[in-house]
Design a protein that fits this description.
It comes from Thiorhodococcus fuscus. The protein has about 725 residues and is α/β, with parallel strands linked by helices. α11 (about 215-225) packs across α12 (about 225-240) and α29 runs antiparallel to α31 (about 705-725). The longest helix is centred in the last third of the chain and has 25 residues, at about 670-695.
């Protein structure tokens, strides 16, 4: 026990941490142990130290008085609730610790019940040392000696203010987007349902507008996701100003927003939509960078001739938004409820894509797949682009959705395989021995003649071994006909072609059907990888997927590696295979051999070691600390309503540090360094928040950079903590 408890805790540590530190001092140890028979019978008599452990582990405040109510001892949770030092509480009568606004009848009733029933419970107002009034729940229990005389009274105190604050915080995060502070999908649907009910009763009309930013991906690709997030926050502040007080705008995720507009006639509605277009397209200055995007808006109205629900309204506005994209972007389109999909536009789109195939306007770019530890380039993913003569280079989302399920999709898919095989021949001739993965749509994969077409394409390129071709299928589409897809995968394996499950983890039946899909590789969806550095939930999903891959003996490839830090964390988790913009952007096939010869992984990747499973909580604690810092930055930079827990031992990292972390690593010399760095971060963070609340925002923002330096020192100490642990 002494070895495990080595080290010091901050003076303001919570009761949960106190349980693991040192031997308590004070009257309670001797007195409770002496009254072991009355308090706990044989249990405490056999193990008197259990009383002190319970005393210090309790999260509630614990107060011990003599039989007349004079305080003999209290735990530190009680001193934190009351705001008094322990020495200021000992020797006082318990009634002096409440607010003074209760009459004598309260104490008379309390002592009467303690005398008759040995128990009293109620809510009372207490007063802290600084004079602040706050409500607490108080439970008093009489402890009697063997002769039946009341020897002690034991009080348990819970601060109701903290519970209410936690309830409000949970309510906030369940209804609002954590990045922008706008309502999330849950709150949007609630408000949309209420608005639908209101307009039916009043005979009015509501408008649902689905907004998708144009050019946002280019911002992320060029400047990184941190800048992209700043842009989203800036636009989320600006767009509500284009609306009225009765309207709602919510963020669904990514760069998608939905506005619910009440009681708009045609002219007023057009004015509001025009203001939204302007709000989204005006330049945004972020530091020295000027960014500018636009927005495509899909609009639908309610009520309609046919009854629709809230989900249908959202789908209708989404479809109309897509039409706005096709129409040239930076515009809005109205959904026609009598025509769920504009067939004329789709026919025109299909005809134009067929013409593009004939004119050879489609090209393939290739994104390398590498082993981050060894630096080996083992493959590349083929990604289609449309070199449109008028609109420039178009990404797949701009032209693939309209052809889904159509025969032209099969023609385009066969062209992609043919072009990839031809590129493989050129690479092999140039000395680059790599494989290529090609994305397959569900419609193409499930056609009866798929295997026949694939064999024909391979036969036209005899110098390419089938094992150099890998076919990627999206997990959700594979589940549409699990038996057929499984048969196709088996047939491909017989001729040497490999399969990978793409975007793994986003489907609905991953655990149920994984064993029935004999794919060689699992590609972890980039959304989990991208946000794993500061989102513990995404990290948990990623770690779970890696466990599945190991259990089913599949290779795991992480998509979305954008920074050196992403690679380091993946290597610590045991994932070595990856692709992403932090490694290389998609490039023309002719450029890949030169890139592969020149590319070297960051030095830190070659030295990063896999973390033992028992040390994974350290990695999660590190990510939770990043999330805490990000929330703090949101408060300082963007005026978020609620700051994260600011007490040194109330944040999730602190709870780990003074709980499981101390138990597992408390005897390591670097543990004290971790404690020190964590305390310094909280001290600096509180200083920054004070500046924010004082209106000195510029100074608060300028000091945020010092938190990054302290964070780096903390993370280095954490790495030392793991390295120092014996294997």
């Amino acid at each position: 026990m002494e070895k495990r408890d080595r080290g010091t805790l901050p003076d303001d540590r919570p009761a949960s941490a106190l349980a693991m530190h040192g031997r308590p001092t004070g009257a309670v140890d001797e007195r409770l142990e002496g009254g072991g028979h009355a308090v706990g019978g044989g249990c405490f008599a056999q193990c008197p130290s259990l009383a002190q452990v319970l005393f210090r582990y309790a999260r509630e405040g614990v107060l011990v008085t003599d039989g007349e109510g004079v305080v003999l001892d209290c735990n530190e949770a009680f001193t934190q609730i009351m705001g008094h030092a322990r020495e200021e509480i000992l020797g006082r009568h318990a009634r002096t610790l409440v607010s003074g606004i209760h009459g004598t009848e309260l104490f008379a009733a309390m002592w009467r019940e303690l005398t008759e029933k040995d128990h009293w419970r109620g809510e009372v107002w207490s007063r802290s040392k600084d004079g602040r009034l706050f409500p607490v729940t108080l439970i008093m229990t009489a402890v009697r000696d063997p002769e039946g005389a009341r020897r002690y009274c034991l009080g348990l105190v819970s601060d109701l203010c903290g519970q209410e604050e936690q309830r409000r915080h949970l309510d906030y995060i369940s209804h609002y987007d954590p990045l922008t502070g706008l309502p999330n999908r849950v709150l949007l649907v609630n408000r949309l349902l209420r608005a639908m009910d209101q307009v039916k009763r009043r005979g009015k009309r509501l408008t649902v507008a689905y907004l998708d930013l144009d050019g946002f991906k280019a911002v992320n690709d060029t400047h990184g996701h941190e800048v992209g997030d700043l842009l989203l926050v800036a636009l989320a502040r600006r767009m509500p100003l284009a609306l009225r007080s009765c309207d709602t705008i919510a963020r669904l995720g990514g760069d998608e927003f939905v506005a619910v507009l009440l009681d708009l006639d045609d002219s007023t509605g057009e004015a509001v939509l025009e203001r939204l277009l302007v709000a989204a397209s005006d330049p945004v200055l972020l530091g020295d960078v000027v960014l500018q995007v636009s927005v495509s808006i899909g609009v639908t109205h309610y009520p309609q001739a046919r009854e629709v629900d809230a989900d249908q309204l959202l789908r209708q506005s989404d479809q109309a938004m897509y039409q706005a994209k096709l129409a040239g972007r930076n515009s809005y389109q109205l959904f026609d409820p009598e025509q769920a999909f504009n067939q004329m536009d789709r026919h025109q789109c299909l005809a134009r894509i067929r013409t593009a195939l004939e004119r050879r306007e489609f090209v393939l770019h290739y994104q390398p797949k590498v082993n981050m530890r060894t630096g080996k380039v083992f493959g590349a993913e083929a990604l289609i682009r449309w070199q449109h003569p008028e609109r420039g280079m178009l990404m797949p989302n701009a032209f693939l959705p309209p052809i889904e399920g159509h025969a032209i999709a099969v023609e385009l898919g066969e062209w992609v395989i043919e072009a990839a095989l031809k590129q493989l021949e050129e690479w092999h001739a140039a000395g680059l021995h790599s494989s290529v993965s090609v994305n397959l749509g569900a419609y193409q994969l499930q056609r009866p003649d798929f295997m026949e077409c694939l064999r024909m394409l391979l036969a036209t390129h005899p110098r390419v071994h089938p094992s150099c071709l890998e076919l990627e299928i999206v997990e959700s589409s594979a589940l549409q006909d699990i038996e057929r897809v499984s048969q196709v995968i088996d047939a491909c394996r017989e001729i040497g072609v490999q399969f990978a499950l793409d975007d793994f983890g986003t489907g609905y039946s991953s655990l149920t059907y994984l064993k029935r899909l004999p794919a060689a590789s699992l590609k972890i969806d980039q959304t989990f990888v991208r946000d794993m550095l500061d989102d513990p939930d995404d990290l948990s999903i990623l770690e779970g997927v890696l466990g599945l891959a190991k259990a089913f003996e599949r290779d795991a490839i992480a998509e979305g590696v954008e920074t050196v830090e992403h690679g380091c964390l993946l290597l610590q988790l045991g994932c070595e295979l990856a692709q992403g913009y932090g490694i290389a952007v998609p490039m023309p096939g002719a450029d890949l051999p030169g890139w592969a010869c020149a590319w070297r992984p960051p030095v830190v990747w070659s030295t990063e070691s896999r973390v033992a499973r028992e040390d994974l909580p350290v990695i999660f604690a590190q990510v939770e600390h990043r999330a805490w810092l990000r929330k703090l930055e949101d408060v300082v930079l963007y005026g978020r309503m609620l700051p994260p827990p600011m007490h040194v031992s109330h944040c999730r990292f602190g709870r780990w540090l003074y709980g499981e972390g101390r138990v597992r690593y408390g005897d390591r010399p670097s543990f004290e360094t971790v404690e020190l760095q964590h305390r310094r971060i909280h001290e600096r963070a509180n200083e920054i928040l004070d500046l924010k609340w004082q209106g000195r925002e510029d100074l608060a923002v300028s000091r945020l950079k010092t938190l990054d330096e302290l964070r780096d020192s903390l993370f280095e100490a954490l790495r030392s903590l793991v390295r120092a642990r014996p294997r």
